[in-house]
Amino acid sequence: MTLPARSGPPLRIALVAPVAQSIPPARSGSIETVTAMLADGLAARGHEVTLFATASSTTSARLHAVFEEGYNRDTDLWPWELCELFNVAAAVERAEAFDLIHCQAEYAPLSLAWTRTAPVPLVQTVHHAPSAPEAALWSRYPEAPFIAVSRAQAARLAGLDVAATIHHAVDPRVYEYRSDPDDYLLFLGRFTPGKGVLEAMDVARRTGHRLVLAAAENDYYRTAVAPLVDGDRVAYAGEADLAAKVALLQGARALLYPLQAPESFGLVLIEAMMCGTPVAALDRGAVRELVEQGRTGHAFASLDALAAGLDDVLTLDRGRVRERALERFRPDRMVDAHVGAYRQIVAAHRRPRGTAAGRGLDARESAGRARARREAERGGGRR
C-alpha cells in the first residue's frame, strides 16, 4: 500500500547505503537495518526512492547495485573505502535524476568531497560519535547538510550544518511485545571494550543473575570474554539473526548496556524497549536521550550504581515500556521527519542566493530548520 506523501509532491531521493553487507542485514548491522526501514518507508509514502546498495539487498525502492555482495563477504573487494567511494560516485553520476542524495556512513562522510560539484544537495548521516578533530576536518565543507541521529551526536558536529536531528526507529510488527520474560539478563552488541561486556558480566555476578551474551565471536571474545563463560551463569548464544535477536530481547528481564565509550545512538536500546524489556545502562552518549528514567529503564552514573539499582529496573512495567517505545520510535515518525528535513534542504538549495530576497530567505530558512529540528526531537520523545 502506498501512503500519501506528506506536505508536498513526491521527492526523487537517492539513498546511499554502506556496501559492507546487504540491506537489510542477514544478522547484525544497525546502519543497514535503519537504512532499509527508511528506504521502504519513503517508498511507501509515494516518493521515488533509489537505494544504492549491494545486489543481495531486498527493498521496495528501486535498487541500484555496483557490487553483487558486500565487502564483508567478498574480501577481493578490499580496501573497503574504495568500494564505498564507488557506491557514492554511482549516485552522484546520476544526480540529475534526483532532488537530493542522502548518504549513510558508519564513520567518515565520504560524499563530502562532491558537495560543491553535485547539482543537487548531498545530505550526510554518520553513525558514530565523531571526535572534535573529525568534525573540524569535515567543516572544510560547512555548507554540507547533516542529519544527526541524536542530540548527543549533533553536539559533536560543531561548525557543521545540522539540518535536523532524527532518532532511529524500530518496527513494532517485528519487535513484538512479551509480558512474561524468562529469568536472564541480556548483553547484545559487539564484543569490544567500549561496549562493556566485561562490565555486564561483573554486574550479573554481583547481583546473582544469569547473563546471556549475543554477538559475533571475535578475537576480543576469545581472549577476554570466553574464559569467563561457563555456560550456566554466563551463557554465549552466538551471533543472532533477526528472529533469534527478537526472541532474546523478548525473553530478557532487562538489557544490560554498561557502555564504556559514548555512542551516537544505540539501536539495541529501543529494540529492547519495543519488546517491553527495560534497560539498565550507564549514562554515556545518547543513552539518557533514549532511556526515560524510571519509565523505560535507568541510566546510571557508575557501574556500582547500576548494580545497586538493577532491581528497580526489573520491577518496571513492561507494558508501559512498550507503550513509550511505540510513542517515540515508530517508523512513520522517523520517515516523516526525514521528509520534512529533505524538503527544507531541497528548497534551500534551489533558491537564488546573494540577493536581498535571498538573504531574507536565508533567515527564514534558518528559522525553519530550527523548527524542523525541534519538531523532529519532539517526535522522538523530547518533552
Describe this structure in words.
The longest helix is centred in the C-terminal third of the chain and has 24 residues. This protein folds into two domains: 208 residues, Glycogen Phosphorylase B (Rossmann fold); 144 residues, Rossmann fold (3-Layer(aba) Sandwich). Helix 6 links the parallel strand 9 and strand 10. With 383 residues, it is an alpha/beta fold. The strands form three sheets. It has a six-stranded parallel sheet, sandwiched between helices. 39% of the residues lie in helices and 15% in strands. It is globular, with a radius of gyration of 21 Å.
Kindly list the characteristics that best describe this protein.
383 residues, alpha/beta, Rossmann fold, 2 domains, six-stranded parallel sheet, five-stranded parallel sheet, 13 helices, globular, disordered C terminus
CATH homology superfamily name of the largest domain: Glycogen Phosphorylase B
- Give the termini distance in whole angstroms: 33 Å
Describe the global form: globular
As for the number of domains, it is: 2
